[in-house]
Target: Toll/interleukin-1 receptor domain-containing protein
Amino acid sequence: MNPIYQISAFGHTKHFTKEINEALSKQLGEFGLSVGNEVVIDLNGSITSKNPKISAVGLFFGNDSKLAYTRPPALSDYDPIIPIVSSLERCSIELPTNVSAYNAMPSGGPNSPTRIAAAAIEALGLMPSRRRVFLSYRRNEARKAALQLFDELSERQFDVFLDTHEIRPGAVFQDVLWHHLSDCDVMLMLDTTSYFKSRWTTEEFGQANLKKASILRIGYPGVVRDNNLSVTDTLALSDADFTEDETFTASALDRLADGVERLRSKSVAVRQSNLVGSFRAAVKQFKGDLSGPGQLRRVLATFPEGKELRVYPVVGVPTSEVVNRIVLDAEEHECALLYDNIGILQSWQEHLEWLGERVDRFHWIKAEASYQALKGILG
Model:
């Protein structure tokens, strides 16, 4: 099989550890990709030329600022580079001047192999660059803990939605809530004693299931999980995981953040698969066929009349940046962005339609209306 993704490790590659390699394999596996087939690892310039049909990222492992920095021949000047250092405080010591402009990541610290793997996969276009988490909790039971999680996850470069921080006065509360939930990768559910006694948290849980978003349940002491609940994963906490002021201990925080990091790639992969599955059914109604995936998880829809359409499944709320990346990848081909519009603000959907009308050979396909969209595209 010809690879469609490439990860180039160079510099002091002694630090390209077995743990990083395993984290890459695990997260790529969530997308149905494997190293040696769809993905190739280029170690120390083992690939001698750039393949323009391959999406690539470079991992530069620093060690000494005097170490020569030369891009491997398999990377173009436009391929992203992620510098890896032992700690962020040592960037000036471990990175050459001509790589210090790129934002670095530490190889030490909590769960660093998973974080490095996630950053590489984001740079390849398999996951959104925004790392979005929705916090669902009862204010009267878990407000302090929710605020603590907001700070901790934000420090770890997650974009965290917290209702007290995000919804402006005068906004239609529920509409804005569902819009943000539509855009999250993982819902973090603080399952306290009265979680399901609140209308809002109950509806948040139901909406997350409707969107097929992954739910990480944080089980508080004494709260027994209902086996009928559709949650992706559970972290059960004990009294020892809390401080006297009802916030999490440092070790509990690490476990929670690690759980979110590990679940994120699985969540995005499952939602992409669901989007493609619903679209595939519509394609079959037109006696068409679906093949792929390729770069940016695109699939190629072909029809008996000879019509072809490159379709890009996008998880969350589409943006103009995503549209631009798709159009550049599609080049002169007819293309479409496939997304789930349920929960997205009507004003945002109208903006998307306005944007699409101004881009040549570009179409929007709502997952719930794939058949109607294809009927309009195929004429």
The chain is about 35% helix and 20% strand.
